[in-house]
Design brief:
Two copies of one chain form a homodimer. Chain A folds into four domains: 89 residues, Uridine Diphospho-n-acetylenolpyruvylglucosamine Reductase, domain 2; 119 residues, Uridine Diphospho-n-acetylenolpyruvylglucosamine Reductase, domain 3, CATH 3.30.465; 115 residues, Alpha-Beta Plaits (2-Layer Sandwich), CATH 3.30.70.2190; 79 residues, Alpha-Beta Plaits (2-Layer Sandwich). The longest helix of chain A is centred in the last third of the chain and has 22 residues. Helices cover 35% and strands 20% of the residues of chain A. Chain A contains 15 helices and 18 strands. Chain A has a seven-stranded antiparallel sheet, sandwiched between helices. In chain A, strands 5-6-10-8-9 form a five-stranded antiparallel sheet. At the A-B interface, strand 9, strand 11, helix 7, helix 9 and helix 15 of A face strand 9, strand 11, helix 7, helix 9 and helix 15 of B. Chains A, B: Its cofactor is FAD.
Chain lengths: 475, 475
C-alpha cells in the first residue's frame, strides 16, 4: 500500500526527492529533539505545480500532509505525529526569488527561500526586508508566514502578517490559488491570504509570497540602559516613543538574572554598563535621516529619560561592532538557557500597560512555588511580548526542577497572562505543544468558529492534522 | 407576519428604536441616492447584547440582516435590496468609547462611534488615531472596519485592517465572539478578526474594536509640487521615501484636468503654483522630531528631487492655514466632480511601478473611445491607488456622456488595471455595484474559496445577502 504511494510520489518529483525509512528521521524530528514523529515519506517538490500534484494525490488517497520549511518550530508544528501515515512535504527546493520591484517596494519569493536569503535579495536591490529572528539562516519564508513570525523588529515593522501583500497557496484538494498581488490597497472581495497566515499549514500550503520591502535606514543608534524597575522601563519606552516615533525599532527588556546568565555564558565579567541594575534595556533606533541628525534626536530623548529618573545609566554603542556586541548579549540569552538547562519557557504577551504588574506579581507567585528560582525574564517589551522563563536554582538539577515545577509554573504564568487579557503564545504559535491549552484560554465560540473555517477548507482534516486546533467535545 | 416580527424586535430594543414604513426610507437609500432599497424595519440596538438578540431572532426566523454604519458607502453595501424582507440593523447607538489606554497605545470603541469621534477621543488622550477619509464626520468605525477603509494616510499608517488589534463580533446565529484583545503579538490560534474586516458584514456584525493609536507628530510639512510627467512624479516619490522613510505621510497625485476642475469649483484662479503643470503632487511629511529638524530634512530632500529634474516647481505651506488650504484642493476634487456631473468613477490600484504606464496607456484608450474627455486623475499614488475618473467634455451633457461611454470606459479602465495585476476596487469595496465584476477579475478557485468561508459561517446566507460575493454557476 505505502509502496504504491511512494511510487506515485516518485512519478511526480523524481526518485531522489522522495525519502523513506531512516532518511526521513531528521525531518520527522524537530531541531531541539523534543518532538519526534514518523513520516510515510518525505517529499521534496521543486515547483508549485509539483506541490499541487503531491497534495492532490494525497487528498485523493486520504493521506495526511505535513508541510515543513526550515523545521525551526519550537512547538512541534513542523513534524508529523508518530503514526507514520503522513507525507512530510518539504518546501526547501522552492527556493527562488522570483522578482524584486524596487519602486513598488516588493519582492516575490518562494516558500523555501530562507529568511537570510530573502533579506540578502532585498539588500542587493537597495531595500530592507525587516523581519529579524534568531533562526534567520535556517527558517524559511513559508514557515515565517504560516506561523506569523515576530522577532525583534516588530515594534517598527510589524509581524510577518504585516509584511506580506499576496500569497500563492496550494489548497487541500491540490488546487492552486494565485493571490500573488503586490497591492497596498485592494478591497475587491474577501482578503483570503489571512486564512493561511499564522494557521501553521492547517488550511493549505503557502508556496510563494509577495513581500513588502522598506528603505534601508541610513542611521542606527544602539544603547544599553540600566533601570531600577520594569515600571520605569515602560515609562522610558513611552517617552522614547513620543519623542522618536516609529524610529524606535527595538526595545528589549532584560532582567538582572537574565543578564547574569548570559554574561556567564559569554564568559564576560560585566554588561556594557559598569554597575549592575535590576533591569537592562537594549534599545535600537533607526532612521532614514543622517546619522548625525538621528544621534542628536536619540541623545536628546535619552537625556530626558535619564533626567526624569526612568533610567540610571546608559552605554551608547559608538560603532557597528559595539552595537553588534550589545545585540549579542540579547540574542545569546536563549542559548544560555538551553545550555544551562532547567528553564520553563513561557512566551506570553499582555497589553504594555500591564507588563510591570504582570512581572511583579507573577515573579512573586513563582518564587512562592519554587523558591530560589532565577527570574530569567526578557523580551520584546515594546510590543508586549515577554519571554518569562523561570530557571532552576544553580544547586538543583534540571530534571528535578522541571519535574517538580514545570507544569505548575507554566500554568501559573499562562493564567496570569490570560487574567490580563493577554496571550499564552505571543510569537511561537501553537503546534501540538500548546494546542490543548487553547481549550482553557479561548472561548467555545471562538474555537467553534475556527473549526468551522477548518472544516470548510479541509473537510477531511488532512492538512497538518492535530496542529493548532484542539479537539472539542463536539468534534 | 411582518407585524409579528416588528413586535418581537420592539421587545428587544424598545418602540422608539424600531422604524417602519416611510421612516425607513432614508436608511434604505445610500447618501448619493444611487442605491434605493426597502427594509422590513430599521432596528437600532444600543448594546452588543441587543445586537445579539436581534440577530438571533432574525436567524431563527430566516430574516436577512443588513448592518449599517454611517451609510457613506459608494457601492451599495450598506442598503438592503428592493424586496423589503431584510431588517436594517443600524449600529449608530453603539457609540461609546469604552476605554483609552495611553501606554498600550490602544482604545476600545463601539462600532457606531464616528471616525471623527474616535479621532477626538484619541487626541484627548494625547494620541493619534490616524485613519483619514473625507466622510470622517459621518462614517463609523464599524463601517470603516467592514470595508477596510483606506484614505490619505495609508502610506504611513496602513489601511483600517492595520489599525485594529481585536474585535467583538455578533455571529450570524446571534452568538457573541469576544476577541477584544489589545495585543501586538498573539499567535495563540487562528487570528479570526480578519474574517470580519473588509467583508462588508457578510460574515457577522462587528460591534466593537480595539484600535491602535500612534504618537501625535510634532512636526508637519506640506507642499504642492509641479511635475512634467507621472513617471517623474513616481521617481520623486521613490527618492522622498528613501530620504524621509515612513515620515512621508501622504503623496497625492493630481492631473492638470483635475486641478483645473477643482480650481473652478473653488472659484480660484491659480493653484498654489504660479504656472500650470501636467501633474501636481500634494505631499505631506509628518514627524515626531521638532519642526525645525523635520523642515531641514524635507527641504533637503525636495532640493534633491528638484535638482534631478523630477519636479519643476514647489510651493511649501508656511503655516497650518496654508497647509489646510493645499489639502482643500485635494479634498474638493470629489465634490467638484459630483457637482459637474458626467464623470466615470474608477477606483483602481496597480503596483506603483506600473502607475505611469497605466495612466499613459489608459488615457490614450479613453480618448480614442471618447474624444475630448477631461482626464480627471488623482489619488493616493504613494500606495498605488489611482482614482481614474474620465469626465465629459464641457460641451456634452452628463446624460449623453454617461449613456454613450460609461460602461465602455469602466470596462477599459478595469481591464487595464487587471492586466497589470491590479485591483478594480482599491478602497471602495464591492457592495452590489462591483459584485458581478468579480466574476471576471477573480479566479474560480478564489471565488469558490470565498464562498466556502461564507457558507461555513453563514449557511443560510442571511448576513448582508447579495453583497460582495457574486452568484456562481455552482451556487
Amino acid at each position: 500500500m505505502s509502496n504504491h504511494h511512494v511510487i506515485h510520489l516518485i512519478s511526480i518529483v523524481g526518485p531522489t526527492n522522495v525519502l523513506v525509512g531512516e532518511d526521513t528521521q531528521s525531518f520527522a524530528t524537530d531541531y531541539r529533539g523534543v518532538f519526534r514523529g514518523q513520516a510515510l515519506a518525505v517529499v521534496r517538490p521543486a515547483s508549485t505545480a509539483e506541490v499541487s500534484a503531491v497534495v492532490a494525490y494525497c487528498s485523493q488517497n486520504n493521506i495526511p500532509v505535513v508541510p515543513q520549511g526550515g523545521n525551526t518550530s519550537l512547538l512541534g508544528g513542523s513534524v508529523p505525529d508518530a503514526s507514520g501515515t503522513a507525507v512530510l512535504l518539504s518546501l526547501t527546493r522552492l527556493n527562488r526569488v522570483r522578482a524584486v520591484d524596487s519602486l513598488n517596494a516588493t519582492m516575490v519569493v518562494e516558500a523555501g527561500v530562507t529568511l537570510h536569503a530573502a533579506r540578502t535579495a532585498a539588500e542587493a536591490a537597495g531595500a530592507l526586508f525587516p523581519l529579524r529572528i534568531g533562526s534567520e539562516g535556517s527558517c524559511q519564508i513559508g514557515g515565517n508566514l504560516s506561523t506569523n513570525a515576530g522577532g525583534t523588529a516588530v515594534l517598527r515593522y510589524g509581524n510577518m502578517r504585516d509584511l506580506v501583500l499576496g500569497l500563492e497557496v496550494v489548497l487541500p484538494n491540490g488546487e492552486i490559488w494565485n493571490g500573488l498581488r503586490g497591492l497596498r490597497k485592494d478591497n475587491a472581495g474577501y482578503d483570503l491570504k489571512h486564512l493561511f497566515i499564522g494557521t501553521e499549514g492547517t488550511l493549505g500550503i503557502i508556496t510563494a509570497a509577495v513581500l513588502k520591502t522598506y528603505p534601508i535606514p541610513r542611521a542606527k543608534c544602539v544603547a544599553m540602559l540600566g533601570s531600577a524597575s520594569a515600571d520605569l522601563a515602560l515609562e522610558a519606552f513611552g517617552l522614547l516613543r513620543q519623542r522618536l516615533g516609529t524610529d524606535v525599532t527595538a526595545f528589549e527588556l532584560i532582567s538582572s538574572d537574565a543578564m547574569a546568565l548570559v554574561l556567564e555564558h559569554l564568559g564576560r565579567q560585566t554588561s556594557p554598563l559598569p554597575t549592575t541594575h535590576p533591569w537592562y534595556i537594549l534599545v535600537e533606533v533607526s532612521s532614514t535621516s543622517s546619522q548625525e541628525v538621528a544621534e542628536a534626536s536619540f541623545y536628546s530623548a535619552l537625556s530626558e529619560v535619564a533626567e526624569k529618573g526612568m533610567i540610571d545609566d546608559a552605554a551608547i554603542a559608538s560603532n557597528e561592532k559595539q552595537a553588534a556586541d550589545f545585540w549579542l548579549i540579547r540574542e545569546e540569552i536563549s542559548d544560555a538557557q538551553t545550555r544551562t538547562r532547567g528553564s520553563v519557557r513561557c512566551d506570553i504577551s499582555v497589553p504594555l500597560s500591564s507588563i510591570p504588574g504582570f512581572i511583579r506579581e507573577t515573579s512573586a507567585k513563582v518564587t512562592a512555588v519554587a523558591p530560589s528560582t532565577r527570574m530569567v525574564i526578557y523580551g520584546h517589551v515594546g510590543d508586549g511580548n515577554v519571554h518569562f522563563n523561570p530557571l532552576r536554582p544553580a544547586e538543583m538539577t534540571p530534571e528535578d526542577y522541571l519535574a517538580q515545577h514545570e507544569d505548575a509554573i507554566m500554568k501559573l504564568v499562562d493564567d496570569a497572562a490570560m487574567e490580563l487579557n493577554g496571550s499564552i503564545s505571543a510569537e511561537h504559535g501553537v503546534g501540538t505543544a500548546k494546542r490543548d491549552e487553547l481549550l482553557h484560554v479561548r472561548s467555545e465560540v471562538e474555537l467553534k468558529l475556527a473549526w468551522s473555517v477548518k472544516r470548510a477548507l479541509d473537510p477531511a482534516n488532512l492538512m497538518n492534522p492535530g496542529k493548532v486546533l484542539p479537539l472539542m467535545p463536539t468534534n
